[in-house]
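Subject: mismatched residue count in predicted assembly?

I count 393 residues in my input, but I want to confirm that the predicted structure covers every chain. Input:
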Amino acid sequence: MHPQHLNLLLDLLAQPTAPFREEHIIACASHVLEQANVPYFSDPVGNLIIGATSRAHYLRRIGEKSTEPLRVFIAHMDHPGFHCVEWLSSDRSRGRLKVLWHGGAPVKHLAGAAVWLADRHGWAGSGTLRKVTLIASKRTIHSAEVLLDTPLNTPATSLYGGFQFRAPVWRRGKKLYTKAADDLVGVFAIVATALEMFGTAKRRAASAPPFIGLLTRAEEVGFVGAVGHFELGWLSTKHRPIVCVSLEASRTLPGAIVGKGPVVRLGDRRTVFNPDALKVLTDLAEHVLPGKHQRRVMDGGACEATAATAYGFPAIGISVPLGNYHNQGFEGGPDCAHTEGPAPEFVHLDDIAGELVLCRALMQSNLPWGDAWHKQRQALQKNLRGYRKLLNP
Ligand SMILES: [Zn+2]
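Triage response: the counts match. Full output below for your records.
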């Protein structure tokens, strides 16, 4: 991976984030986009939109008359974590907090698990979990207490956090271990692709590439940022097609192995995706990453392509296989003390590099979006001709 790309990726992975508390990811991404003169703005929901400078500019881009579909790349900036709600009333030293969990989590070996805390200024401290209660279905954490390592003198509600490991991110060979690869790797891929698309002065002088990046908030609690964006109605277009591309880090499964390449995501836990756009992506992957990509329904979780599908937009997905999904130690490894207990997520640098190749390929002009099955149909017709005489003996 290009050193500049690796730096950006490590920078993003080193930021604290939680559902509704994506401020540091927004700051990091905005800074990089600003430096490179890439247009961006925030929508009313607080999502970061890349490829336009304002609502009016965005609507102009959606309204352009073109047969080239606008590629709307979607990734989310949050990761499961907790919000602090109050200092425990009995506690004068401000060393114990009540916290509410948002999103998925391990449900075993939680007592004494290390957590980080942050606020809008950055990292704020660390502590351990105790008195954890699960939601009724027992699938994730409902609430807990956090015992701080060092008391803090801040309003409880300014603090949020997640599971802590030896560092926010570290590298071992080609694997990156981190508190949260889901979905900061997707955020990285969109920012890196945007830098490339809008990067050169020459490009800026020409017409803008058919690229929109939608970096969303609070995906982990039901695609809240994406749905909030779709509800604005801005994406309704009469003059040009659009295709939504969800970029995710998704739970590794048989046939979607960490290190074997990015996954052409045929669907998620809720639905399969758009077959025409998937055909374009499938053929592209065969062409640009022969033998170095994977392809399957990633039904270990749902993603924003489902939200886009629910709103009637053609959607596809690309996944980077993810170890220890949502910090659950399914695959174990460093800093995972107990199977299925808290563990750092991990991803492979080759899979991420492959994801960038696929994103770039999807931006090629004149891809057969309008008739993705043309070549396949020709092959089927040829086969039919070969068998005609058996049909009519
Ligand atoms: Zn995710």
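The first strand starts at residue 40 and ends at 42. Marking this ticket as 'not a bug'.
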